[in-house]
Design a protein that fits this description.
Blueprint (H helix, E strand, L loop, with lengths): L1 E2 L1 E3 L1 H16 L16 E3 L5 E2 L7 H11 L5 H4 L3 H10 L1 H4 L24 H4 L5 H10 L4 H4 L9 H7 L2 H4 L2 H11 E2 L4 E2 L11 H11 L10 H7 L10 H4 L1
Antiparallel strand pairs: 1-4, 2-3, 5-6
Helix pairs in contact: 2-7, 9-12, 11-13
């Protein structure tokens, strides 16, 4: 068990430098030594601990973080960029797994280092904060946002709905997406959800944003929301809706 800390400015800069260098040298090990080095990190209050472990998917990571950080005030830690960046480095082998050759595919910086200035267009991409927030807001239905097919770490539903805070934060929209796009029996996204055609998550994001101009989707029951969707979504509807 390790005590949670936060990266200071020097630690954040060191993490950024590593990410830039790792794009050119994919086998470069992350600077884990800065996690508890007083030159790069500082104590976090309240005193909480995390244990390194592997997770099957981002949903399981989110469940774990909600348990580990249960004593923290959610509103206070939600935008704590230094905390989430420290946790991203701590769980780096989870969110940036290396292949058999020891190489990693490093994505954009915002996936790992949370920017100090709040910008949801970047915040939602963070692969530690977003699982925590999604599970906290939506419970098991957050699987549609976090469980990717083929062992990946990003989902099409998460990409399309996560980019808009009003969609990401709406229980009814996420519940509708869960019913349409998540296979509960297989515990993975339904086949075809990563496409760009009719009825896909990309289209759902566009359609519900139009519906928001007329309806308050926060107060619209999930069944009614599903009924409002055009015919292009019929192939994704649960049987009770189609009937």
């Amino acid at each position: 068990m390790s005590k949670v800390r936060v990266l200071n400015d020097a630690g954040l800069q060191r993490f950024r430098e590593y990410l830039g260098a790792a794009k050119a040298s994919p086998s470069l090990p992350p600077p884990r030594e800065i996690l508890d080095d007083g030159k790069f990190s500082e104590p976090f209050v309240p005193d909480v601990g995390v244990e390194y472990q592997q997770f099957e998917n981002a949903y399981e990571l989110g469940v774990y973080l909600n348990t580990a950080l249960a004593s923290c005030e959610a509103r206070e830690i939600s935008r704590n960029h230094a905390l989430w960046s420290w946790l991203a480095l701590f769980f780096f082998d989870v969110i940036a797994k290396s292949n058999a050759s020891g190489e990693r595919k490093i994505l954009q910086e915002a996936v790992y280092v949370l920017d100090k200035g709040f910008n949801f267009q970047r915040y939602y991409r963070h692969q530690v904060r977003t699982p925590w927030l999604a599970v906290r807001k939506h419970g098991e239905k957050a699987k549609v946002l976090l469980v990717a097919g083929g062992g990946g770490t990003r989902t099409e539903v998460g990409e399309q709905l996560g980019a808009y805070p009003d969609l990401f934060g709406c229980d009814n929209i996420i519940a509708a997406a869960y019913q349409m796009y998540f296979d509960e029996e297989a515990q993975k996204p339904k086949r075809g959800t990563s496409g760009k055609g009719n009825g896909t998550p990309r289209r759902l994001a566009a359609v519900v944003r139009q519906l928001q101009l007329t309806y308050d989707l926060n107060d619209c029951p999930v069944q009614e929301l599903l009924d409002l969707l055009p015919k292009e979504f019929s192939k994704w509807m649960p049987e009770s809706v189609v009937a």
